[in-house]
Specification:
Length: 47
């Protein structure tokens, strides 16, 4: 039978996951609001 308490004591997060998490949080991601604002500016500039 699995002793969950013992297994949790052995657990160490993977460095790969921590690195990926840091890379994701450090990215400047564009959301839909940014895309719409940019599109509106381009339309106004064309007029």
């Amino acid at each position: 039978m699995i002793n969950f308490e013992e297994e949790l004591k052995k657990f160490h997060p993977s460095l790969e996951i921590e690195d990926a998490e840091e890379a994701i949080y450090n990215q400047d991601l564009t959301d839909m609001a940014d895309v719409l604002v940019k599109m509106m500016k381009e339309i106004k500039e064309e007029e």
